[in-house]
């Protein structure tokens, strides 16, 4: 059979093949099912995200700062000073640990949000814009802006119960008025209630780009201890390696070490949880009060070495501070020695005598340490540093301190006679050795004792028999001596005593002394003296009274 052109071969074949296929859904129904399989999960996920986001913006975002403060704590281990940048910022490195405990969040929605968020996202890379530090004083009802803080981006775990070891790099731009005002407030009113707030925009890193989330306003209540800075007592302060040397022009330099056995800022460290402070080398001006008790007279320039203050922890006690100090005493002219009441001839009070009297009589050196202009710091920070004025009452045990300088006192060629046949007087040469230390580059033209006064008790075999009083100032000469054995430098002060009245307090003992002198030619007498010195130095002439010294001499007729 031969097919012609009208035979429908393809149609027949197609129909026969189609009859073999199973019946199924139409193309329209398949497309509908595909759309449901895709869009239903999208709708569900979108609904969850919308709900999750809505909770954030409605219930969480307005008080995000409070929730962060409730659910996260940061314990700092170390604060290290890294230097100062060209814009006047103070660069700090802060090491510590961030701990998440979202159970402490009071709001249930916020607590659920934080715990749920940690299940999906384990860690966030954060960037914080410039942080404004604001302090609110509840007792006065006013605010003070402490300045701005720049924080380098950092990563933090957000899973509940997890810890993050943080190494933060901060740059602080302090505002002088706010900072100094708060410091003054804390020192003068240690029971003040302060509330610290930080206001900044936080951004989260997503796909290599930072997305801003919200502003944070985090409150932190600070309970100020009754004594924020401990008073330093004379028992806890020691001076070592005191040396004097010639300075520029007519000035003098004094180098020494200050040893402090007790941590004066321990309460402050506990308050702000900074167990370790690194203090850089600093330059200061040392000022003393004028006649009106205002710290207007610059006495010296002071440079303190860098040192660290480490808080006592567990069994590790405070190791003490050892600060190297260099003081350059300038030629201050007549400011220190100018009489406060020149109209009153009997009143010889000067700023220097006021300072020395307080030092000798009260064992207190009252000074004001003021920040000095620093050329290697930016101008803004230098201006802030110059506004710092710290009044300090430094306890100084003058008895202990002067005993280190006054090496020995003696009276040579001491003789006794009855003037006019009835008045007992003595004659002799009073000699004092003042130890300045090794290699002290000081000439007698720059530091000398020109006059000596005071009085002494004379003792024989441990019992007092007489008072000796120098009613008027005795002239004195000063000579510089160097011990060839140990290179110790001394000022040798000699003052002749002529016809000094002897006040006999124990006549029986004195008669025994006279008998012993007649029998042996001389006896050993002890001297317990309070010496007054009139000292001349580059910044003028001043008086030091009641320096306790002792010695002995041979008493003869």
From TrEMBL:
Protein origin, superkingdom: Eukaryota
Membrane-crossing residue ranges in chain numbering: 36-58
All copies of domain Tag1 C-terminal, residue ranges: 446-554
Keyword Transmembrane helix: yes
Pfam families: Tag1_C (PF22786), Tag1_M (PF22787)
InterPro entries reported in the protein's UniProt record: Tag1, Tag1_C, Tag1_M
Record bears the keyword Nucleus: no
Gene Ontology cellular-component annotations: fungal-type vacuole membrane
Location of the Tag1 middle barrel-like domain: 235-388
Keyword annotations: Membrane, Transmembrane, Transmembrane helix
Name of the featured protein: Pre-rRNA processing protein
């Amino acid at each position: 059979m031969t097919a012609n052109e009208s035979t429908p071969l393809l149609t027949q074949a197609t129909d026969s093949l189609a009859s073999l296929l199973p019946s199924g859904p139409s193309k329209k129904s398949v497309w509908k099912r595909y759309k449901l399989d895709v869009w239903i999960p999208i709708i569900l996920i979108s609904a969850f995200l919308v709900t999750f986001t809505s909770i954030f913006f409605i219930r969480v975002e307005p008080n995000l700062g409070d929730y962060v403060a409730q659910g996260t704590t940061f314990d700092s281990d170390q604060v290290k000073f890294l230097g100062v940048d060209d814009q006047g910022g103070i660069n700090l490195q802060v090491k510590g640990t961030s701990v998440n405990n979202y159970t402490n969040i009071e709001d249930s929605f916020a607590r659920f949000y934080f715990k749920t968020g940690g299940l999906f996202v384990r860690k966030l890379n954060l960037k914080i814009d410039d942080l404004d530090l604001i302090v609110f004083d509840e007792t006065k009802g006013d605010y003070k802006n402490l300045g701005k803080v720049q924080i380098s981006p950092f990563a933090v775990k957000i899973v509940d119960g997890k810890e993050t070891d943080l190494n933060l790099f901060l740059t602080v731009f302090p505002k002088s008025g706010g900072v100094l005002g708060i410091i003054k407030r804390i020192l003068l009113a240690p029971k003040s209630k302060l509330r610290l707030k930080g206001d900044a925009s936080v951004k989260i890193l997503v796909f290599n780009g930072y997305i801003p989330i919200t502003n944070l306003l985090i409150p932190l209540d600070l309970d100020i201890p009754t004594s924020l800075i401990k008073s330093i007592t004379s028992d806890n302060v020691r001076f070592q390696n005191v040396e004097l040397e010639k300075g520029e022009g007519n000035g003098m330099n004094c180098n020494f070490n200050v040893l402090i056995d007790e941590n004066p800022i321990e309460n402050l460290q506990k308050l702000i949880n900074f167990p370790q402070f690194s203090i850089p080398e600093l330059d200061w001006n040392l000022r003393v009060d004028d006649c009106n008790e205002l710290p207007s007279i610059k006495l010296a320039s002071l440079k303190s070495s860098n040192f660290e203050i480490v808080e006592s922890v567990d069994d590790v006690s405070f190791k003490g501070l050892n600060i190297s100090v260099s003081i350059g005493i300038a030629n201050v002219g007549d400011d220190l020695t100018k009489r406060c009441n020149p109209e009153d001839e009997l009143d010889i009070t000067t700023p220097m005598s006021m300072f020395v009297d307080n030092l000798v009589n009260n064992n207190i050196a009252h000074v004001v340490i003021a920040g000095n202009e620093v050329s290697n710091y930016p101008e803004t920070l230098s201006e802030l540093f110059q506004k710092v004025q710290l009044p300090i009452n430094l306890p100084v045990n003058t008895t202990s301190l002067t005993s280190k300088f006054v090496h020995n006192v003696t009276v040579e060629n001491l003789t006794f006679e009855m003037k006019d046949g009835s008045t007992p007087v003595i004659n002799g040469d009073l000699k004092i050795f003042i130890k300045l230390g090794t290699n002290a580059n000081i000439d007698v033209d720059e530091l000398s004792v020109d006059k000596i006064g005071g009085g002494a008790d004379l003792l024989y075999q441990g019992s007092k028999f007489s008072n000796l009083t120098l009613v008027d100032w005795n002239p004195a000469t000063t000579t510089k001596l160097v011990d060839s054995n140990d290179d110790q430098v001394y000022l040798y002060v000699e003052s002749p005593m002529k016809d000094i009245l002897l006040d006999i307090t124990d006549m029986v003992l004195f008669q025994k002394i006279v008998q012993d002198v007649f029998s042996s030619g001389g006896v050993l007498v002890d001297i317990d003296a309070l010496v007054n010195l009139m000292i001349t130095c580059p910044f003028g002439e001043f008086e030091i009274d009641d320096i306790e010294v002792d010695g002995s001499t041979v008493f003869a007729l």
